[in-house]
Amino acid sequence: xxxxxxxxxxxxxxxxxxxxxxxxxxxxxxxxxxxxxxxxxxxxxxxxxxxxxxxxxxxxxxxxxxxxxxxxxxxxxxxxxxxxxxxxxxxxxxxxxxxxxxxxxxxxxxxxxxxxxxxxxxxxxxxxxxxxxxxxxxxxxxxxxxxxxxxxxxxxxxxxxxxxxxxxxxxxxxxxxxxxxxxxxxxxxxxxxxxxxxxxxxxxxxxxxxxxxxxxxxxxxxxxxxxxxxxxxxxxxxxxxxxxxxxxxxxxxxxxxxxxxxxxxxxxxxxxxxxxxxxxxxxxxxxxxxxxxxxxxxxxxxxxxxxxxxxxxxxxxxxxxxxxxxxxxxxxxxxxxxxxxxxxxxxxxxxxxxxxxxxxxxxxxxxxxxxxxxxxxxxxxxxxxxxxxxxxxxxx
Length: 396
Description:
There is one protein chain. This protein is α/β, with parallel strands linked by helices. The protein has three domains: about 5-215, Cation efflux protein transmembrane domain (Alpha-lytic protease prodomain-like); about 220-295, Cation efflux protein, cytoplasmic domain (Alpha-Beta Plaits); about 310-390, Cation efflux protein, cytoplasmic domain (Alpha-Beta Plaits). Helix content is about 60%, strand content about 15%. It has eleven helices and seven strands. It has helices at about 5-45, 45-70, 85-115, 125-150, 155-180, 190-215, 220-235, 265-280, 310-325, 355-365, 370-375, and strands at about 240-250, 250-260, 285-295, 330-335, 340-345, 375-385, 390. Strands 4-5-6-7 form a four-stranded mixed beta sheet, with helices on one face. Strands 1-2-3 form a three-stranded mixed beta sheet, with helices on one face. β4 and β5 (about 340-345) form a beta hairpin. It is rod-shaped, with a radius of gyration of 35 Å.
């Protein structure tokens, strides 16, 4: 019941998609970066050079994604019992910090250029051609990467895709700045560079903040948590669900939940219900693993009194009381409830006596003293008849 095959399948698929989309991004960014920086210097366009540096940051982030994706796919080990999925979150945090640093650098450079407007050189028309090519390429790359990332629900890949969209937006700003510069308004080029820097820094802050929240054990949103609760409640034998908690690890989440079951069922049946509930929860693709705790009562509002005696003490008192009547217990079930103890006692059959004799002995048993000594709420007697049991009337 604890197989991780579905999780491993999702991880393998996500890793393959990450390689495919990220390698596509690497190729595009190498070509565009070379064009932007080379033509930017030739055409005297600070905005285009800034956009080229942005593409260089994209290239670095692509390699971070590839490394993190490979590391996160490692199976659980002695040091990481829950796997290595959070490596992706750490990579997203690092990527966010990188983008903030790059954006601030662009803003600083644009600010120094704006402070010296008289020395801003004229921009060559070739810068506009490159800016348009970059704009179209980055928008196409964004659509491809986002489609792949959403298919495997990878937050890191989605972040990388939107990074490409921010590139497309910045390239649009660069194109507008270059057009303005070509028409004689030279300050538009450094202004465009400053806007690009702001967009890059803002996107980095968003990615970094989200990653930090996930590293701080952020829970799934209310809708996802509600879906998990419905799966648990749909399990036969589950009466209620409480203390449902989730915490994200990478793109998936760990789930802890307490389920309420009939307090008088066997341990094995309670375990079966818990495993059934876990299997249902694992159907949700957002769940990495689930820990299900079985409760006979809602322990958020009701707890068995701590003064109740342990099973060994209960068994000793039961044996002593039954011995007064020449009887002995062959089985004893003790139920610890907030209302007190419930006992189910099965009397051993005497092979030398008949059923009537066993019944007469059982009917004479006065359990009031036993109930008082144990603080029991209810005591039920049953007598053994061969391999079967028959409830003794009058004892409840």
